[in-house]
Amino acid sequence: MALMAEELGEISACVTKGKSKQDLAEESADLLILLMGTAISAEFDLNEAFWQKMEKINKRKSKMVNGKIRVSEFKGIDKN
Ligand SMILES: [Mg+2]
C-alpha cells in the first residue's frame, strides 16, 4: 500500500509540477504494475473486477457538477 501511495504521489507531482506526458505515463505504469501485483498476490482477477465495475458505472445516472459530467454515487448529497 505504501508503494501505491508513493506512486500516486509521483503521478500527482507530474500534474501539479507540469512534468511531461512521458513522465506521467511512466508513473501511471508504475501504479498499474503495483495494482497488477496486488491482484496476483491476493489471487483475484483484475480484468474481471475492472469490467464488473465498468458495468456498475455504466448503470449510474450522470450529473453535471461544475460543468463536468460525473457518474459518482451521490449518496446523501442529492437533493433532487
Ligand atoms: Mg514511479
Automatic annotation (TrEMBL):
What Pfam families would the database entry show? MazG (PF03819)
Gene3D superfamilies in UniProt:
MazG-like
Name all NTP pyrophosphohydrolase MazG-like domain ranges. Answer: 2-63
SUPFAM superfamilies xrefs:
all-alpha NTP pyrophosphatases
Q: What is this protein called?
A: NTP pyrophosphohydrolase MazG-like domain-containing protein
Lineage of the organism: Bacteria, Pseudomonadati, Pseudomonadota, Gammaproteobacteria, sulfur-oxidizing symbionts
